[in-house]
Amino acid sequence: MLRTPVWATASLLAVAISLAGCGEDKAPAEQAAAPQAATTQSEPAPAAQETVNSEAAQAVVKHYADIAHAVFSDAHSAALKLQDAVDALLANPTEETLQAAKAAWIAARVPYMQSEVFRFGNPVVDDWEGQLNAWPLDEGMIDYVKGDYQHALGNPGATANIIANKELQIGEDKIDVSEITGEKLASLNELAGSEANVATGYHAIEFLLWGQDLNGTNAGAGERPVSDFIEGEGCTGGNCDRRRAYLKAATELLVSDLEEMVNEWKPGADNYRASLEKESAENGLRKMFFGMGSLSLGELAGERMKVALEANSPEDEHDCFSDNTHNSHYYNAKGIRNVYLGEYERIDGSKLTGPSLASLVEGTAPEVNSTVKTDLETTEAKLRVLVESAENGEAFDQLIGPDNSEGQEKVRAAIAALVQQTGSIEKAAAALGISDLNPDTADHEF
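== Peptidase ==
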């Protein structure tokens, strides 16, 4: 969904379970309990013994911007490769070209998911990201679906089917969609005020490549036939010409949107990065810590894991059509680690390193720095368990199944590690004189 951070929230509210998305299973009456891990209300961190050197802090903020530029540049480069693969699929729809496009989509997620740590604290990213990564979506707005598919209650666009119709009837309004362009698709996001109406971005493309995942919490992802992209005789699913146009337009828009964000972080330009570097170093550090804590707690532990776990709901997993959720979670956490350690491994294998939050915290509270590093490693290890599980045939949507207590424990352990990690991030911020960080909880209790 398009989710807005709850800035400076001081209370933890009950979880709201979304019903929009991919799976076919309904949540059972008995739902898995979320972990009762140590929360962010831990013992206060040791106070900094000396004021952080402003020049050193500013160098850390500058390197943070360098990493952002590198990550978004990699996401753009990977999207260009996805675009090439989509073009090859449309030029010659075969099982081989379809699988190549799917592989390019999965590869494109690796750098993008590491970029999400920049979303929280940087309005330019948060205001922009919904067009690229909104979820869960009511896929019936885009294309054909199984007749009884689950969608957001009261959503008038849930079965609009843009691909099958040149005009949409939404309540009293008629919307011309005869020409499928990126601009037109972007205008349909949150149609009729419903956040589940998502027409663009990674997940719209994912649905077009994989189709619905009708397996619930059983094994298997979506299985869209390549014949859905054949022109003329042999077309399945109807309206193959419009499906082809939709996939092409959505992919082109993704590339364009990512290029926009690359430019916002480019050095030496009149852009968001320039305004960030003009702010006080303390403000820059606060944004870094807030981004790390909010992605760790409210978004990843809460929206992307706790919701799905408690509802036993594949509808609420992140990359639900492709069953790539394990990788998305893993690389989200990798992005948090990147920012704290001031390092990033680019998609070409080169490594970017420089002044880091870790070095600043080490200078004022080495024991806190050690704890943060340990917690980051623990979180990565717990999420690696989910990756290895998927690689061995048991994906995230199977782990959260109502009868899979062992799988649920794996997810619960990862959530607990993220919650613990967030508390350590707050202590690290306090060690540098940044109090009342209040990472976004997304209204979840932990």
